[in-house]
Amino acid sequence: MRLLDIKRLSKEYKGGTHALCNVNFSVNEGEFISVIGPSGAGKSTLLRCINRMIDATDGEITFDGVSVLNLKKKELRRLRTRIGMIFQHYNLVNRLSVIENVLHGRLGYKTTLEGIIGRHDEEEKEQAFAILDKLGLRNETYKRCDQLSGGQKQRVGIARALIQNPKLVLCDEPIASLDPNASKIIMDHLKAINKDMGITCILNLHQVDVAIKYSERIIGINSGKTVYDGPANELTMEKIHEIYGSEAGELIIE
Amino acid sequence: MEIDLFKKRRRQMTIVTVIIVALIIFFAEITKYDAIKGFTSIPAAIRWMFANFYPNAKSLDKLPSILSKLNETIFLSISSTTTAGVLALVFALFGSRTTKINNFLSSISRFIASIFRNIPVVAWAMILLFSFGQNALTGYFALFFVTFGFLTRVFIETIDEASYESVEALQATGATYFQIVFQAVIPSSLPQLISWLLYMIETNIRSSTLVGILTGTGVGFAFSLYYKSMNYNAASLVVIAIVLTVFVIEIISNYVRRVIL
Predict the structure, then answer these.
(1) Is the pLDDT reported for residue B1 higher than 70?
(2) pTM confidence score
(3) ipTM of the complex
(4) How does strand A32-36 pair with strand A200-204?
C-alpha cells in the first residue's frame, strides 16, 4: 500500500538557498527508512515539508491519498494528527509532568476549548498509561520532564507521537543528543513500533552505521538532491562517499 | 603580529581615556560644576541630616495618616502592574516570534509597546494630568502605560526563550493556536512572567511615590507636603516608611520567586 508520494519537491528559502531540488520518492506502508546526508543537505527541510511545518515552494506530496500542499487550515490539522514527529531536542514542555506531555499528542483531536483546559477522557488516559508502560516509563508518569534523563525525555517524545495513533512517524535526528546506550534503547523502540504496530517511520540520521543496521531502505541526500535511494545492504562505501561528498579515508566510519 | 595587537589595544585605551576626561572637563565647565566644592559639601549635608532629618515624638502622631497614604501607593502599584501585565501578555503573544499570528500584527504590537515604554512615567503623569486632573487615576494610568510597555517587551523575550521548541512540537501534533498558548507557552514561561511582574511591582512602588508628588496622591504627596512645610521630622518618617516597605516587598517577592522557579 502506497502511503506517501513525493514528486518534484523543491524548497527555496528567502535569500535563494535551495534546500531541496526536485526530490522524488514514495513510501509504502510499514517501511522503515533512514535519510542520511551531510549537515545542511536538506534532511530536516524534507521531513518538515511532509507535515507542512515548512511550506514547500514546488512539487507534490500525497499522504494516504490526500494532497498535502493544498490543504486548508482545518484539513492540515487533521493531517498532522496522523503524522507523529520526534525531535532531536525532544521539544517537551519541561515544566509539565510526563503524562501531561504525552497527552499533548491528543490535542489535534480536540476542540480548542477542550485543549485549553486540558480535558482528556478515560480512554485517552488509559492509552497514555499503556504506552508509558510499553516504553518503560511507568515510574516516571508523574515526574516533571526536567527531572528526566535525555533518553527518558526522548521516550516521552515517542509516547507523545504514539498517542496520536499516527500512520507515519517522522524522526528528526532522534538520537543525535543521546549517549550510545540511550541511543540503542530509542532505536529499538522505534524499530518495535514499526514492526509491532505497523507504523511507518522516516528518520533523519547522522550515524550511517545505525542507519544501515536498523533500516531496510536508505535515502541519501546531498545539496538538496537524492543521490541514493535503495536497500540498506546495497549501500556501498563508494555510495556513502558520494552522499557525503567525501574522499576515501575522510569519514569516521571507515 | 601579537605585539602589534597589544600596542593597538593600549592605543585604544589611551584614546578612550583622553576622550572621557575631555568630556568631563567640557561639561563641568558648561554647567559650572565644581568637583571640590561638591565633595566638600557632603559632610555638611550629613550634619544637616542628623540635626533635622529624623523622626521625633511629635512626628509619630502623623504615622497613621502616613501609613494610610503608603497603602494607597502600594495598592496603586500592584493594581497598575497586574492589569498592565494582562494586557502585556496579549501583546507579547502577538509580538513574539514563536507565537505571532503574522508579521504585521507582530510589528504593530512591538511598536505600540515601544512607544509606551519610551515615554518616562513622569512625562506620562504630566500629560495625563490635563485629562484626569490631580487624582489617583492619573497616577494609575501613568504607571499602567509604562509598565505595559516594559512588560510587553520582556514577556516577548521570555516567550521566545522558554517555549520555541515545545511550540514546534505541538504544532506538529495538529494543536490549534490557543491550545498551544495554554498548553505550552504559558506553562513553560509562567515562572519568568511572574518574576517580571514582581519586579515591576517593586519598581512601581518607587515610581508611584514619584508620580504621587505630581498627582497629589499617596505617600509621595505626603512627603512633598511635609518637606515643603519644613516639617523635616515627618518627612524623614515618610522616607523610612518607604524604604522599609520596599525592603519588605523585595523579601516577599524573592521568597515567591524561590518557590515558583
Answers:
(1) no
(2) 0.83
(3) 0.91
(4) parallel
